[in-house]
Write a structure and sequence with these properties.
Elements (H helix, E strand, L loop, with lengths): L1 E5 L8 H9 L7 E3 L6 E10 L2 E10 L3 E5 L1 H6 L4 E7 L5 E4 L2 E4 L5 E5 L4 E5 L4 E9 L7 H4 L14 H10 L11 H16 L8 H18 L8 H7 L4 H7 L7 H17 L9 H7 L5 H12 L3 H9 L7
Antiparallel strand pairs: 1-3, 2-5, 3-4, 4-11, 5-10, 6-9, 6-11, 7-8, 7-10
Length: 324
Amino acid sequence: MQTLYDTRTVHPLDRYEYYRAGAANELAPVSVHGCSPGRLLAVMSVAQIGDFAIEAYTWAADREVVTRRTDHLIRAYDTECYRILLSVTPGLRIEQADHLVDFRARDIVLYDTSRPFKATHPTGPMRLVMLTFPRALVPVDHATVRPLVGTVTPRSLPGRSLIAQFLIGLTEPAATDDPSLAEILHECVVGLIRHRLGEPTGITPHTRRLLHHTRINGIIRQHLSNPTLGPDTIARAANISRRYLFTIFQDADLTPRQLLKRLRLQEARRRLQDPELASTPIKDIMSAVGYIRADQFARDFRQQFGVSAREARWQASNPPGAGA
């Protein structure tokens, strides 16, 4: 993810004005109101996944601050987007379309960036994940969706928890590298909206399997260094049974073990090609991705990429035409 603004990078006395300037340059710009806090932490990071923007927001201050998406800002820059906001922690308060939400942890609310809103930031620490996407991506008439704007998604809604885990997982390092994510996001947001409207084509079993699959990808990436990582460990971390783990993968190209092997090798190649890790011994990179035996790593790496680990590192530092 790319950092849009981070108040830790400026002097404490400059942080409030720096934050106000950053908020005015968000995907859906807002104006900031209230007295300057004595202590302020505001960090916004964003990643683009096809037509979807995933934003991670961290906040902490010693006094409340209000942000507004005003008619003036909308006229100046109307993104014509929906935004799904997930509160990782409680505390935020947002009012839009005559609906006021005091967020609890893991609440999910749909907003419309083309309509004014007021957000009150708490004094305590807060974390948010926001998914912003064009309204045109939702094949449901905007007037039909409008009653959902500014209302909390019921916690009893099937698939809601999976979507929450999925969105949080997208803020992890390298989590947005999967080229299939845009398709999964589209199925999720359309399914969520249709489900809330009572339509039968909501969050389907296929969508749930995709979400579980992506969740498992994230779990594997987080635990690559564990040499004993396997189906049982992955299933426990995902809070599913071993049997259901294999059910999720029954229509996939890879088994869980094959996926684990591929992700380990991809991460090893990424590290070998990283200039900042050029002096790191290959055996240390091998260990960092969960391999114990050097001969097995060497054999798997060559089989996957057609070159040795040493050759992959050399090719990264000596690309074709570099000496021309």
